[in-house]
Amino acid sequence: MTEEGKQKFRIRRDLLLILGLLILSALLWLALGLMPRGGVAVVTVDGAQFGRYPLSRDRQVVIPGYDGGENLLVIAEGAARVTEADCPDKLCIGFGAISRQHESIVCLPHRVVITIEGGEESGVDLP
Question: How many helices (H) and strands (E) does the chain have?
Fold first, then answer.
């Protein structure tokens, strides 16, 4: 095979690889877009349920964490996020907004876990 033929083969192989990656990316993006969005943010503190809050209703909830700490949960535009925390590392703020089933935000120092559950938006709102 000539040098020119080898180069054409490499270019064709590279184009096929790029096309394959683009198709794979599009399929992954489509699959993530079709995942059901959750309906309720379930908050637990030290393993006990603190509250269930529908994502369809905007609100702010102060969550008293373990050993006196606090986290501020903000539910807006169908998503939940922790915007303020007085824990040392503040990693829970870095999780960003969650809105899909089984996504979670965890604050280990305060023992707070916020998980999205799908479907029903009925539940008890605790203060």
Answer: 2, 7
